Fold each of these.
Amino acid sequence: MEQKRYAVAVDGPSGAGKSTLARAVARELDITYVDTGAIYRVIALAALRRGVGPEDGPAVAALLPELSVALRHGDDGEQRMYLNGEDVSADIRLPEVSMYASAVSALPAVRAYLLEMQRRFARERSVIMDGRDIGTVVLPDAAVKIFLTADAEVRARRRGLELEQRGTPKPYAEVLAELRQRDWNDSHRAIAPLKQAADAVLLDTSALDFEQSKALMLKTIRERAGL
Ligand code: DC
């Protein structure tokens, strides 16, 4: 029997654990995980490489028609990002790309350019998609909407640990300041700001470890999607 198709939207500030949790949940439910932040990061990387300021709307918009952005999943289920045919999955994680991504994602031309790509993905298969505006703009009819958050200090500590493990450590104070700056940018932009959808379930993982957060997320999804 064919399984029913459904979408899970996961939104929240950076460092809330969206991607790690959504990836684990996708594996458990055998659905596709889509990290939409990665798509904005590809545009950011393109701007960075061409020396285009990320806040320069007209210049970034002029760049878009020259770009081919593709999102594919490998046999291992991992999402990979391509810019004009080049696999940029590693480069888009460079720390300098994060701030650029936050800035380019505030540009209406960029959001419009990427909207259909994200919707098309969700039409073709069951997905768990994470980002900032998935439940509010990209997939307003998603069967399940989760707003995942945690205190800024907890998120900064987690991010610091992640950077350390990647071999690019950074002082805690710096990580926290950058995270607060991105929170502010992402929730104060005029278009598709980060905010909880009215029908989203709020999950605060400040006091939860990974396994507890995952269990809570799975329970929420199974209940809401009627699995
Ligand atoms: O989740 P991330 O840190 O990889 O996202 C990078 C930036 O992209 C983030 O600062 C906000 C933006 N973004 C967005 O505006 N909308 C999304 N759906 C996903 C990410």
Amino acid sequence: MMCHNARVKGPLVHVVGARPNFIKLAPLYLQLRDEFEQQIIHTGQHYDRRMSGDFFDVLGLPEPDHNLAVGSGSHAEQTARIMMGLEKLFIEISPAAVIVYGDVNSTLAASLVASKLLIPCLHVEAGLRSNDRTMPEELNRLVTDQLSDVLLTPSRDANENLLREGISGDRIFFVGNIMIDTLNRMLPLTETIDLGDLPDSFALVTLHRPSNVDESGKLSRISEHLVQLSELLPMVFPVHPRTRACLDKLGFRPDSKRIKLIDPVDYLRFIAMQKKSRVVITDSGGIQEETTYLRKPCLTLRPNTERPVTTEIGTNTLIGDDPAAILPHLENILAGNYKLGQVPELWDGDTAARIKKILQDMSLCEPK
Ligand code: UD1
Ligand code: UDP
């Protein structure tokens, strides 16, 4: 049933909580604005202005309708607080459907609460698998996908993963990569960003995976290697709050001319920095995708990725767990010997429009 000239029963409710969620929410929220009543629930998983509020401003999103302000905590505490807050709100709001994004604790909590209340749940960025159950995100992905009614995938490998897990094909829709919608829209605006304070040529570094930063022996080894590599190429390192706390514990104070440690930056500035950088060294999920789209070399300090398309046809290389393995790749890149990659199928800026069509076709509507 089409939704044209029709009204949804309750609002569509988007649940977001962490930095990468806001970037995925923006294109869909803006795409649906004229036709659907919508509400945004921010769980408060991320709360620093630099991890949260700045993104709403830069991406043109309104203030969230609700903020659960759950803050940080252990996985069980954080997930439970989000679930308790969402259950109450969902009962009050009676959403026509709930839309969840990515693989963070807020995603898992929202899909669990929505499905127990029999509210249709749509998962944007479904089906990604690292096949590494030591990653908290992998557990979040597995459960969210089993519980969600509509699985919106960014790449064909994700469809295959879901089918292999016994999810029925009629719930799975290959819609493309929503992060690229935002990147595509914001790229022209990055021309206005002044990066005059950064070196002419540099490596952009981000690290925040618990497996890299939480254990001080591992982080100390990574830091030592970054210091050595910075002799070849200066580094700019916007530091995630989890990592900041761990680096402070180590007492890491590198020469700021070689490694510039800065606070997390807003999205526009970060994209401008990716564009200007010579190479990106990261363990982020989303940045593996953005570098592929920007055709920028990306060295991922992980043994696996839930985004294999970025290594198979994009510009990403998995370095593994050992930071010593970065050097030969960096040398290759500096010598101009690195793959250019290609942009994956349906990473074209129109993912939100494809999701809108699916929502229009769902029976979430009643005639006006
Ligand atoms: C979370 C997600 C991860 C995602 C990342 C994006 C889970 C399990 N993890 O990891 O998948 O890649 O977000 O950035 O959902 N902190 C602050 N200020 C903030 C937020 C966090 O200081 O605004 C600090 C707190 O000390 C907190 C720590 O960072 O304990 C970790 O935050 P948390 O949201 O639990 O996990 P992330 O590492 O951010
Ligand atoms: N990002 C940003 N500022 C920063 C670091 C990252 O805007 O200082 C953006 C980045 O461009 C990408 C997203 O944050 O769009 C990735 O989020 P993160 O690495 O925190 O999470 P993950 O993708 O690993 O879940």
